[in-house]
Write a structure and sequence with these properties.
Blueprint: H1 3-18, H2 24-35, H3 42-73, H4 78-102, H5 107-128, H6 133-153, H7 157-175
Helix pairs in contact: 1-2, 3-4, 3-5, 4-5, 5-6, 6-7
Length: about 180
């Protein structure tokens, strides 16, 4: 087989692997078959991908920790809390949209983004409507429904389970 044809086939297999059109071990087998065991150029892409995933995980976990600390353990002004909610919400949405575009799903970044969205939306409901607890229940319920929908769409059992358990705990909190 000539080099041009082999390069086209290996690029196509790499595309399948990147977009998860085939299981990763099938793609690895096919790449080893067509490249005759040589893997030039594959290692830097995987290291860069792991680096980006690690950086995103670190940023989201840091934002999650910072938001829990700032909202629940300090006394900030209403203006500062609102500004932080907006910044954390925009950051979370940007990261989630980036992850959807790049089609990689690690549990840690998505879980951190979901928890950050829960914390910021609950905090926003407490700030905007301080005397209406029913709206707080609605916001928490919508977050649980969002988790169930995300778990169903991306076939993530942990999100489905978290959403269902969250709704059950919320119903118990409302009626007890």
């Amino acid at each position: 087989m000539d080099d041009h044809r082999r390069k086209i086939i290996t690029n196509e297999i790499k595309y399948w692997k990147q977009n998860r059109m085939l299981p990763e071990h099938y793609c690895d087998f096919l790449l080893n078959l067509y490249t005759e065991g040589s893997t030039e150029g594959d290692i830097p892409q995987e290291k860069r991908s792991k680096g980006i995933k690690g950086l995103i995980s670190f940023i989201l976990i840091a934002l999650l920790s910072l938001s829990v600390f700032l909202f629940y353990f300090t006394e900030l002004s209403l203006f500062l809390q609102t500004a932080l909610i907006i910044i954390f919400g925009v950051t979370t949405l940007t990261v989630v949209l980036y992850m959807l575009k790049k089609t990689f799903f690690d549990l840690i970044p998505i879980l951190a983004a979901a928890l950050l969205l829960l914390i910021t939306s609950v905090q926003a409901a407490e700030i905007i409507f301080p005397e209406q607890p029913i709206l707080l229940y609605i916001v928490a319920g919508l977050n649980c429904i969002l988790w169930i929908a995300a778990g169903t769409k991306w076939n993530m059992v942990s999100f489905k389970l978290s959403g269902i358990i969250g709704l059950i705990v919320l119903l118990i909190a409302i009626f007890i």
